[in-house]
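Exam revision sheet. Question 4 asks you to relate a sequence to its structure. Input first:
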Amino acid sequence: MKTILNVIWLVLSGFWLFLGYLLAGILLCITIIGIPFGLAAFRIGVYALWPFGYTTTERHDAGAPSLVGNVLWLILAGWWLALSHIVTGVALCVTIIGIPFGIANFKMVPLSLLPLGREIVPTDQLFATR
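Answer key, structure tokens:
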């Protein structure tokens, strides 16, 4: 089922969101200081390409550096990426078939705003560790 959802997601919004994260990652990797942010953008971009079957969880070893990094991320790229998820989510919620995909877009907004200190894991792995 998740494969079917991922294919429909890819056609409706996943590819364009992936391109947005790819562009943000390339722009952030121009400077040495921005490389960790660019890598985070690439990581979230792959998640935005195939989101079903994966979820995010907090990293317990993340501390003050991830807080400072999240503030910088929010200023540099977070607002624009979150805005793209909101616009895409609203557009998908116009049709009945697109409502689940719009909700999935809205669930990705917090990750696009504050990605550092979070980890993308398969859904099965999350339940196995609890």
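Marking note for examiners. The helical segments are 2-28, 35-49, 64-92, 99-107, 109-113, 123-129.
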